[in-house]
Amino acid sequence: MLTRIFPFLGWFKKYSGAAFRADIISGLTVALVLIPQSMAYAQLAGMPAYYGLYASLLPPMVAALFGSSRQLATGPVAVVSLMTAASLEPLATAGSEGYIAYALLLALLVGIFQFLLGVLRLGLVVNFLSHPVVNGFTNAAAIIIASSQLSKMFGVYVDKADLHFETIMRVIHGAMHYTHLPTLGMGVLAFAIMVGIKKFNPKIPNVLCAVVITTLLSWATGFNHDTKVEISAIQDSEVQALIADFNKSIAEIENLALKRTEIAALEDKAKSENNQIGFYDAEHDIAVVNYQVKLLKHKSHELRTALRQSLLDGVEQSDGSMVFYAQGKTPDGLTTDGRTWRLKVGNKILDTASLNMMGGGAVVGTVPSGFPALAIPELNVKVILKLFPFAIIISLLGFMEAISIAKAMAAKTGQRLDPNQELIGQGLGNILGACASAYPASGSFSRSAVNLQSGAVSGLSSVFTSVIVAITLLFFTPLLYHLPQAVLAAVIMMAVIGLINASGFIHAWKAQKYDGAISIISFIATLAFAPHLDKGIMIGVALSLGVFLYKSMRPRVVALSKGENQVLCDASIHGLRQCDHIAVVRFGGPLFFANASFLEDQITDRIMDMPNLKHIILVCSGINDIDASGEEALSLIVDTIRSGGRDISLSGVNEAVLAVLERTHLLEKIGKDHVYANTDDALCRTHAQAHQDGSESDCPLTTYCRISGNA
């Protein structure tokens, strides 16, 4: 009972020192990935970068302590971050105080909803995730995450497109334009270190070694080489014009966002006052603003792309300052520093007095220190009502992603998952996280893969991850400054490659072709709709349910006959001849409203196809349940058969079905003497009468038996 309330107590059964060391190493490795990754995801959610660290502090530890998966790494994830941004952008300006307050409240609502689902034992929704769906999703997600790291490997910066494959095309185009070779070299070196150590001595933490070696190399060689300059230092009028146009478009977007917020307030006021004209005017104005924002976002994307593709040569002045010229256009007599310089451009207005110029590779950089204040998010009923639908979507989406990942890992580790307990863990993680300034979090595919590959034995690895994040925030942030982003990309890619399992498709296809097809379609759909991974899962679930319903509506109905071994089996599979006078029919599945008419059709077909038919034995061993529609259909079948001068018997009827027949008095109609314990008894009782005056000389159902001592 105690372990149900506190699941983490079960971790320590047969726990060893080796497991403890493995959890510490895994926790450290995941923390090293989590810190920069969480900051990137926070920006994706429209939050300041350091809020990603706050979402990495309590949620991983709490979700692990109260969840059921021992390797699932919780924290900021891409899909939930995107959903958070999509939910909040219509309500407030990204990054503003109001936006942050909404995000924290959203995390609280998500946590409460998930927690209630778990407490009410409604985690059974995960049972709709069949193994073929999980296999297809896992393989596709592994490819998506691995390919999402290509930009970091090549040192290329692009805007994300609506679909993942479009983003990858942008990355490839950007890499063809310019690849930062030292960045690529760092990533390749990290791969070489991890693969080499794993091959020659798997006991050594290869990920940790790769991180330490490349960080030291980055520090020693000056891998990162950024500087800040005024716009006048860029001696190129075209680039200066691009910067001015970009800043103008971003400023207009911000102004329109503020205008949209004001109009939304007027819309609410008109709605509360039943002012229909005012409400429709506000709706129209919001639509116009949204259209204008969409145009400006497209324009800013084109300007941002042009700025990122502008390659510059740097010239150091006598006073140590830098000036920049378009690559290949440096005036004669000036010597460049040999680096290719690029302008770092994000989604905010560029500070023309302090432009960030990149002359080297990307590193983690400065990590903000200190803990957030603990406080319950401000509760506002009007805001809660607006956010609640989004909270439900994010709750279910985040949980389905987390449990899909957990199931994939459980298949490797042999764990038993409790979806309800996982909901409780995820819910508590989001509730307590919201009180510590965290936006919605969920199970991370990439970090869970790193956790598993690093050898995590229990949820203590996630506890160590939170502890390490906390310690790092307080004391060791400078040590992470020189860690190359390309190395983190290599770590993630190395981890998720191990989750690609092509044999799963073959196995599912061999088991049932429709399972193989569902797995393949789930895989393709997840890839096609990425980064909207929920669509791939939903399509897979819908296909699984569709196949289940189809099979339920058309269960297997087979004709039985006997071969040389005198055992009843499927006549069509074994190529057996059937008796002309007795039809032995086996129905495989519950008899209910969806398939009752199907059984009627099957019996009618046999009556039409067998002119000499005298008796039908319905083998009911596969009918484990029957409803009112099934009982009514069976009654009609009895009437149809006997009205034509034929007879029917039942065999192998279980207790539950027999009880229904007794309550509805159908048993009296059929006759207790027409219900047999097994099919051989039914054949012994009916064979002679069915063949009376018959012309069949060698019946395949001929049997020798003794019943009640009579031959």
The low-pLDDT segments are 706-711
Rg over alpha carbons: 34 Å
Output the structural class.
Answer: alpha+beta
Strand content: 5-15%
* Largest sheet data: 6 strands, mixed
**Count of individual beta strands:** 13
Indicate the mean pLDDT.
Answer: 87
Spatial strand arrangement across the major sheet: 9-8-10-11-12-13
Binned, the helix content reads: 55-70%
Describe the global form. Answer: elongated
Number of helices: 27
Distance between the termini: 60 Å
Q: What is shown here, in short?
A:
The chain has 711 residues and is an alpha+beta fold. It has 27 helices and 13 strands.
Helices, strands, pairings?
Layout: H1 2-5, H2 17-44, H3 50-54, H4 59-66, E1 73-75, H5 78-88, H6 97-119, H7 131-148, H8 150-154, H9 164-177, H10 181-200, H11 206-221, E2 226-229, H12 237-272, H13 276-308, E3 312-316, E4 322-326, E5 340-343, E6 355-358, H14 381-413, H15 419-434, E7 442-444, H16 445-453, H17 460-476, H18 485-497, H19 503-511, H20 513-529, H21 533-553, E8 556-562, E9 568-570, H22 571-574, E10 582-588, H23 596-609, E11 615-619, H24 628-643, E12 647-651, H25 655-663, H26 666-670, E13 675-676, H27 679-690
Parallel strand pairs: 10-11, 11-12, 12-13
Antiparallel strand pairs: 1-7, 2-6, 3-4, 3-5, 5-6, 8-9, 8-10
Helix pairs in contact: 2-5, 2-16, 2-17, 4-15, 4-17, 5-14, 6-14, 6-15, 7-14, 7-18, 7-20, 7-21, 10-11, 10-18, 12-13, 14-16, 16-18, 19-20, 20-21, 23-24
